[in-house]
Design a protein that fits this description.
The complex is a heterodimer of chains A (450) and B (294). Chain A is of the alpha/beta class. Helices cover 52% and strands 13% of the residues of chain A. In chain A, the strands form 4 sheets. In chain A, strands 2-1-3-13-6 form a 5-stranded mixed beta sheet. In chain A, strands 9-10-8-11 form a 4-stranded mixed beta sheet. Chain B starts with a helix and ends in a 6-residue tail after the last helix. In chain B, helix 4 runs parallel beside helix 8, helix 4 packs antiparallel against helix 10 and helix 8 crosses helix 10. A two-stranded antiparallel ribbon of chain B has the order 1-2. The longest helix of chain B is centred in the N-terminal third of the chain and has 32 residues. With 294 residues, chain B is mainly α. Classes of the chains: A alpha/beta (450), B mainly alpha (294). Chains A and B meet through helix 1, helix 3 and helix 19 of A and helix 2 and helix 12 of B.
């Protein structure tokens, strides 16, 4: 009597469970079917693309170009629905890595140079050579060296978003004058003198926001390091041809930053502000300068009070005495690129590739350039009068600039994490430059041994 | 028949238990086994995995950053035991007195932060700590204590305490509710008798409430340790383990290794390390508190 009742109950539970499972399975099948047939019918089918990126609609040069191109694309592709997710830069970087680790990358996304290797080794992205070669006009529209950060051998693993410097010095010439500095320092010793003078006048010489950990490395060390080591050293590090992070030149570059910290050149809350907050001190005329990449040109133009904007001038890190690097280099390049998920195929892949094309088209580059951005494609036909004063100042400066690699774009994520959080450690004085160099070298060697 | 009502046959019992147990195995035990499995590989998240045996563990034992974050976890745990349970105990004791008015109101207000999202709390406190616009420095300035103003989340010497404060603040209510529940189960006569005997205020707390709540307090301490060994979201939002590694906790370190440095194998090793260390500390604390005397 008891037995059958128990069995019945268990059976009932199992049946319910089974039903739930089969329902879920049905749903899946139903969802899969149209996709399969879409491969045969193409274009007319409804296509949905997921697109995760880091362009919030904030009026910056890049987002203006981006949304302009995206709208054009939507108009010409009414059958494609784009589900987009826009995140801020730091959040985006974390999110995309997390998605990649879980094997759940969106259909179209933005990829950093340093992510190319792990993504590619895990078959999450594919080379875009075929697509580029089938449309030579597209391929040839890019500026020289635009693909450098995304080339592995002959394979091109990303469509560059923009090509820009990551290290410019924005300074307020009024404040400089007030401190008795009439001209931007010509070499590193003069620069340190200037810092002292600004400090004694009560200004924060350099405002910096390093909460995201990349700013000091990307916007200061990458260029300052090149001044000390020369570019050959970095190329040798990247290709594992014998240079070491413990080489005296690189340690000297770390020491130079350490020295700035000891001179109180930075704001005291450097490690809890992010790069957007760092500029607030500059806008309030409490700080005399800040280091940031080309993207800040349009931001300063939009955000700064008029008197600050008028007083703002641009410069690059001056040469260091005895340094091996050339004086006119600035770390920069594409850094980030658009990519598509390796899983895409058929009409979905075509739609995604066309989206990439749209995102390097004239509709993308022109508004970006006119707002003071740095498109990765050559734009000849644009309205020069639309350029802001600051952007014009940059165009002037850019005539002599040569790009050198940015560390965090070309080194592996492991080495970069050690370097970036190590720099935070060094700034708060818990590690010496020598020790930090050793730590980076250790991680670098550990990766080589695998 | 009646017996059956109160004491279900063991088969029925098992029948009802099957689903929850299966669910538990699926969400707790399986990930544990998977994490242990991953920890034996050199793995960056994709299909490529390389078996390396126990070498990840050998690395973990030598990893000073991991032990530093373990130390931070211990500091946070100790602070939280003293802060959360200590303050909750004092508040609970106050609730039994007649001095305190609007008890229901107080209880609700104190409990409110418990249900807030850790991310929101992290953001709010980051703003409060902000050097320029933060309310904390504003108050200090307003009452003339400008010399105390610090970059709260930037100074490696104090950052671990700064990030503990929101944690403590958030969970006081949680322990208050536990202690209150236990207090309410103490018969009123005991308090009345104590009052007649002249034990009030401080004496009553020490000689009556404390011994009667001893078991609940032990459980609270255990909960507190378990919760704080895996603390993550507050610190992730406020400092991301920075500046440098000075507020790094184990969970954050596991996260950094897994998702920032693409070392998922090693990240899993750290997670297993967290589990082992947490269990060890909970067992140790049980030994110290007298274990299962009851």
């Amino acid at each position: 009597m008891k037995n059958p009742r128990f069995v019945k109950r268990v059976l009932a539970i199992l049946v319910v469970f089974g039903l739930m499972l089969s329902l879920a399975a049905c749903k899946k099948k139903a969802a899969q079917q149209p996709q399969q047939s879409s491969q045969n019918k193409n274009i007319e089918e409804k296509i949905t693309l997921t697109f995760t990126h880091m362009f919030t609609n904030d009026g910056s040069a890049i987002s203006t170009g981006f949304y302009n191109a995206l709208n054009e694309y939507k108009k010409s592709h009414p059958n494609v629905t784009i589900k987009q997710e826009a995140l801020s830069h730091d959040t985006y970087e974390t999110k995309i890595k997390t998605l990649a680790a879980g094997g759940e990358l969106p259909d179209v996304f933005v990829i950093k140079g340093s992510m190319v290797d792990p993504f590619y080794n895990n078959n999450q992205i594919v080379p875009l050579n075929d697509a580029l070669d089938s449309d030579m006009a597209w391929k040839n529209s890019f500026v020289e060296g635009a693909f450098d950060d995304f080339k592995r051998g002959d394979k091109i693993l990303g469509i560059p978003i923009q090509v820009q410097p990551t290290s410019l010095i924005f300074y307020n010439k009024q404040i400089f004058k007030e401190a008795g500095i009439n001209e931007f320092p010509k070499d590193w010793n003069e620069f340190k003198d200037a810092v002292k003078k600004l400090r004694s006048k009560g200004y924060i010489p350099i405002t910096a926001g390093n909460k995201g950990k990349w700013l000091v490395e990307s916007c200061i060390l990458s260029t300052l390091g090149d001044r000390f080591t020369g570019t050959e050293w970095f190329v040798s590090i990247r290709d594992r041809k014998g240079s070491k992070f413990t080489d005296p030149e690189f340690v000297n570059a770390l020491r130079a930053i350490d020295e700035l910290v000891k001179m109180k050149a930075f704001n005291t809350d450097i490690n809890s502000l992010d790069n957007n907050q760092q500029r607030t001190l500059y806008y309030n005329k409490k700080a005399a300068m800040f280091f940031e990449g080309g993207w800040a040109i349009s931001l300063v133009t939009n955000e700064a009070p008029k008197d600050v904007l008028d007083a703002t001038e641009l410069a690059i890190i001056p040469p260091v005495p005895g340094g091996k690097g050339k004086p006119n280099t600035v770390s920069g390049g594409a850094g980030w690129a658009f990519q598509i998920n390796a899983k895409l195929d058929g009409s979905k892949k075509n739609a995604a590739l066309e989206l990439l094309k749209a995102l390097s088209s004239y509709a993308y580059s022109r508004p970006m350039l006119e707002k003071g951005g740095f498109p990765a494609t050559k734009v000849t036909n644009y309205d020069e009068s639309k350029l802001s004063t600051l952007a014009k100042k940059y165009q002037q400066l850019a005539k002599n600039i040569k790009y050198v690699p940015v560390y965090d774009v070309q080194l592996s994520p492991g080495v970069i994490e050690v370097m970036n959080s190590g720099l935070q450690d060094m700034i708060i004085g818990t590690i010496t430059p020598e020790k930090l160099a050793q730590k980076i070298q250790q991680e670098y060697e550990r990766e080589a041994s695998k | 028949m009646e017996r059956g009502l109160f004491k279900p046959k063991s088969r029925v019992f098992i029948g009802y238990l099957v689903l929850p147990v299966l669910w538990y195995v699926f969400v707790v035990v399986m990930p544990l086994i998977l994490a242990f499995n991953y920890s034996l590989y050199d793995w960056s998240g994709g299909p490529r995995m390389r078996f390396v045996g126990l070498s990840n563990y050998a690395e973990l034992i030598k990893d000073t950053d991991f032990w530093l974050s373990f130390k931070n976890n211990i500091i946070i745990t100790l602070l939280c035991i003293v802060g959360q349970i200590g303050i909750a105990f004092i508040l609970a004791a106050l609730m039994t007195t007649r001095v305190l008015k609007f008890k229901e109101f107080h209880r609700t207000v104190i409990f409110l932060p418990v249900v807030l999202s850790a991310v929101v709390i992290g953001f709010i406190w980051t703003l409060m700590y902000n050097q320029q616009i933060g309310i904390l420095n504003w108050i200090l300035r307003a009452i003339g204590l400008e010399s105390l103003i610090k970059p709260w989340l930037d100074d490696p010497k104090i950052v671990i305490y700064s990030v503990s404060v929101p944690l403590i603040w958030q969970y006081i209510g949680f322990y208050l509710v536990i202690l209150m529940a236990s207090l309410q189960s103490i018969p009123k006569e005991i308090f009345e008798a104590a009052e007649i005997d002249g034990a009030d205020g401080f004496k009553r707390t020490i000689y009556i409430i404390l011994p009667l709540l001893a078991d609940t307090l032990k459980v609270s301490v255990m909960l507190c340790i378990a919760g704080n060994m895996k603390v993550f979201d507050h610190i992730y939002v406020m400092t991301g383990g920075g500046p440098g590694k000075s507020s790094m906790v184990m969970a954050q370190y596991a996260y950094n290794n897994s998702f920032i440095m693409f070392k998922l194998g090693y990240g899993s090793t750290i997670s297993v390390g967290i589990l082992v260390l947490s269990l060890a500390i909970i067992l140790l604390s049980r030994k110290l508190m007298g274990g299962k005397r009851q």
